[in-house]
């Protein structure tokens, strides 16, 4: 190899080392006030991409509420950005207002937050969480270990497929959550007993052609029979997109972030 060619290769190698070191250093920096992409890898090799928004005052010594946001079927993929298509402005505003940590995971294209079809008239909660849901719960555990998360103020909100995921999460691990907002989704009415102590605000459009409005009505009825705190907003002329009015509902958002886990 000629001296000039060797010098060029050494130069390129040095550049790669510098770039890699810089990337590692950047990854260790605490970035606040904006969404940052991350990837979680489970022991079986399955990955979950997610965006994390840390409030600017994350290091103030105070405990911070945490909101999990579960997107719908149309935002599935592997770009780690589509999950912010709906609700990004709302999440950023609530993080700033309430000092909240926001976890926005992305479900893989061929998977679901809960492995049931949303056109079914009813379903029973699967015995095990789906791979993506298991990943969400694992990331939540990591965040609780790393940051000063207020264990009494962990919330979950989701739309459509994410509405199903919201119901699944609070039935599967009710001890984790202080409040939930399932939007145009569906759950297992037989699981209402498990979630009866969690304040819930449900949204659905009466003319929803994608997820039957009966799915939300079933859950609300089951919870009311148990004297649970459940609010229900059914919009008479709305179709599937009820997340837009839900995200604009300041009363609901203030209600959500005021909830604290009952002991």
Question: What can you tell me about this protein's structure?
Answer:
With 263 residues, this protein is of the alpha/beta class. Helices cover 36% and strands 21% of the residues. It has 8 helices and 8 strands. The protein has an 8-stranded mixed beta sheet with strand order 1-2-4-3-5-6-7-8, sandwiched between helices. Helix 2 links the parallel strand 3 (64-70) and strand 4 (101-106).
Number-wise, the strands total: 8
> How does the helix and strand content classify structurally?
alpha/beta
Helical content, roughly? 25-40%
| Shape verdict | globular
Instruction: Give the total of domains.
Output: 2
Q: What is the C-alpha radius of gyration, as a whole number of Å?
A: 21 Å
CATH homologous superfamily (4th level) name of the largest domain? Alpha/Beta hydrolase fold, catalytic domain
Poorly predicted runs of 5 or more residues: 1-28
Describe the main β-sheet briefly.
8 strands, mixed
Q: From N to C, what is the helix and strand string?
A: HEEEHEHEHEHEHEHH
Q: Strand-residue fraction? A: 15-25%
For the record, what CATH class of the largest domain applies?
Alpha Beta
Distance between the termini: 72 Å
CATH architecture of the largest domain: 3-Layer(aba) Sandwich
Give the strand line-up of the largest sheet.
1-2-4-3-5-6-7-8
Number of helical regions: 8
CATH topology of the largest domain: Rossmann fold
What is the average of the pLDDT values? 90
